[in-house]
Amino acid sequence: MDKEIKDSFSINYLSNQTFDSLSVCRINYHRIFMLKEGSGTLLIDDVAYQLAGSELFLLAKGQLYAFHPNTHITGYELSFGDCFWEKTPDSASNCKAVLFNNAAANQQLPLNNTDQSELDVLFQTLYQEFIKDDYPNKLDALAAYLKIIMIKIANVNAALVHGYDSYENQLYRQFIELVSKRYQATHEVADFANQLGISARKLSDLCKRCSGKGAKDIINGQLIAEAKRSLQFSSKPVKEIAFHLNFSTPDQFSHFFKKNTQISPHDYRDRFVNIGM
Q: Does residue 163 surpass a pLDDT of 50?
């Protein structure tokens, strides 16, 4: 289980860190690994990622991760909670929504030489500020640096996706933000499209150009992420989780969950009950 961190914010520099054993961690905070160098494997939920360095890994609160034995990394580990993020100006909120509300879509981001150099300077500056003695408004200063880093990462992410203009990019971000706020109220693409003032077909086409996934896939991804967190971190009955996520019946929810994860809600909970304890 993730350790509690002071003020819900922490940044560490890892110099040729070696992992000798597989230790799975449930995270209570959003986490960014900015790797300058790396070799080995990082497991996030059920997916294994090969490390090569010059890359970012974005992990959302509630995910599980572990470095395989004989993995080596050099770079920064940045952790922050929602309560710390609230200190950042509102103008950066869309960036966080795009990057972390459906983290599985942005889990690994390769960095070119320019982006690597620019982010290295930003992370180093934030780290140096973090290790200073406490002073008035220090948390506000850290939050401001975090905002700049998040905007830069969002720009890196956007540059990896081709074929959409700034207007579509803005609509896509609005859709992601709406999904994060209203996924319990509705699961229908048409409802989100109506709120954005476009057709369901246009919204789906836009999402495919911006993310490679359809609008329905993005909605389902949010539902699955929330369902997994509830199953892992609460003792709520599956029936209660189903109704909380606005499914008509527990059977409908169980069918949906198994279709998207190849495992039943009950089996998923049993699988993770002892991990990280």
A: no
Domain layout of the chain by residue ranges: 6-159, 166-272
Model confidence, pTM: 0.69
CATH number 2.40.50.40 is the correct assignment for the domain at 6-159: no
| Cα gap 212→104, rounded to integer Å | 13
CB 36 within 8 A of CB 69: no
**Kind of pairing, strands 47-51 and 9-19?**
unpaired
User: How far apart (Å, rounded) are the C-alpha atoms in residues 264 and 270?
Assistant: 10
Q: What is the mean pLDDT of the chain?
A: 89
- Does CATH number 1.25.40.850 belong to domain 166-272? no
- What is the C-alpha to C-alpha distance for residues 171 and 176, in angstroms, rounded to an integer? 9
φ/ψ of 29, rounded to 5, equals -130, 155
Q: Quickly list DSSP for the chain.
A: -PPP-GGGEEEEEEEEEEE-S---EE-SSEEEEEEEEEEEEEEETTEEEEE-SSEEEEE-TT-EEEEPTTEEEEEEEEEE-HHHHTTS-GGGHHHHHHHHTTGGGGSEEE--HHHHHHHHHHHHHHHHHHTSPP-TTHHHHHHHHHHHHHHHHHHHHHHTS-S--HHHHHHHHHHHHHHHHHTTT---HHHHHHHHTS-HHHHHHHHHHHHSS-HHHHHHHHHHHHHHHHHHH----HHHHHHHTT-SSHHHHHHHHHHHHSS-HHHHHHHHTTTT-
CB 193 within 8 A of CB 155: no
Q: What are phi and psi of 50, to 5 degrees?
A: -80, 130
Is the separation of the CB atoms in 239 and 250 below 8 Å? yes
Least confident piece of the model among 11-15, 166-170, 187-191: 166-170
For 180, the token pair is 């994060």
